[in-house]
Amino acid sequence: MHLGQAKKNSFNIFACEQITTEAGLLPIGYRLKLNYRGFWHTYRIAIFVFTLALIADGLSTVYFVSYFGVSAEIHPVVRFASVVFGPVAGPIVGSLWKWAACLYLAIYCRKFAYSIFLTTSVVYIFAAWYNIWGVYLFV
Predict the structure, then answer these.
(1) What's the rounded Cα separation, in Å, for the pair 85 and 79?
(2) Under DSSP, is residue 133 helix (H, G, I), strand (E, B) or coil?
(3) Chain centre to alpha carbon of residue 44
(4) Contact, 107 vs 39, CB < 8 A?
(5) What does the DSSP assignment read for 36-89?
(6) Are the beta carbons of 94 and 75 closer than 8 angstroms?
(7) What is the C-alpha to C-alpha distance for residues 51 and 41, in angstroms, rounded to an integer?
């Protein structure tokens, strides 16, 4: 059944698989509602590891931005937040935004959630290492 053929007020979250657009894709809101069920329980360990890696990156970014200045930060969201909120609160606000964006993406693309969490965790752990020790290798 296409979205245009659905009856008004007949939305059933369990029938989301049947409601598609002409391209064969679920609308964003329906897909998020469908994928959200059981998400936190299924991916709790991956979310925990991802959150720890992001905390390490965020705290090391506070050190990095405080020591080298906001202009040395290359992540656009963290750089903008650091300009607006300062070198301590900015990286924390930027990290919260990165956390929310990654979770939103993982819920939307639930089939790839483990890959998303693994990839971002590795990148954030590397970024934390670079902010503390690696930057001195390339200066």
Answers:
(1) 10
(2) coil
(3) 15
(4) yes
(5) HTTHHHHTHHHHHHHHHHHHHHHHHHHHHHHHH-GGG---HHHHHHHHHH-TTH
(6) yes
(7) 15
Mean pLDDT, the chain, integer: 85
φ, ψ at 2 (rounded to 5°)? -85, 160
**Whose CA is closest to 133, among 38, 25, 42, 60?**
60
For residue 27, the Cα-to-chain-centroid distance in whole angstroms is 20
Whether residue 47 contacts residue 117, with contact meaning beta carbons closer than 8 Å, is answered with yes
Residues 34-75: pLDDT tens digits?
888 999 999 999 999 999 999 999 999 999 999 999 999 999
Percent pLDDT > 90 in the chain is: 68
Contact 67, 131 (CB under 8 A): no
